[in-house]
Amino acid sequence: xxxxxxxxxxxxxxxxxxxxxxxxxxxxxxxxxxxxxxxxxxxxxxxxxxxxxxxxxxxxxxxxxxxxxxxxxxxxxxxxxxxxxxxxxxxxxxxxxxxxxxxxxxxxxxxxxxxxxxxxxxxxxxxxxxxxxxxxxxxxxxxxxxxxxxxxxxxxxxxxxxxxxxxxxxxxxxxxxxxx
Length: 180
Hints:
Blueprint: E1 16-17, E2 24-26, E3 33-35, E4 50-55, E5 58-64, E6 76-80, E7 85-87, E8 102-115, E9 117-122, E10 128-132, E11 138-145, E12 156-160, E13 167-178
Antiparallel strand pairs: 1-6, 2-3, 4-5, 4-6, 7-12, 8-11, 8-13, 9-10, 9-12
């Protein structure tokens, strides 16, 4: 079963855990613990690279790897290079009319699986709406209103530009059609 602590989408990732680490310091007045040593995995393959970090399912600040070392705290740590996943489904074809019809996509009804965050939008506005699901992995359907105008292309974009899980199982579009 997928858990938030294990969920990540990073390139060149080596998952690390803090097992076997013997040096911890407690934060004053809180239960937060800060690790005083580097993660046990050697990340020399990422030297001088800026990496994204997901610690226990939470996005942490980017760091630059120096001598194979990245520091920080967390029980389960995923550290790797960022990449952007973009889905642009096939052109919307209504009644076999293809690009003859001018259409407006008013809403995307998207089925997500084990997803934490993502973006949905249209090419007509270039603006993507962030779809957030809180702090737990979400499986189900989200309706995303889209503020695009009428156009012939009618492309919808689904994007993930964070190292967090997003799986799109399918999509239905609510559209309006204007025939010239």
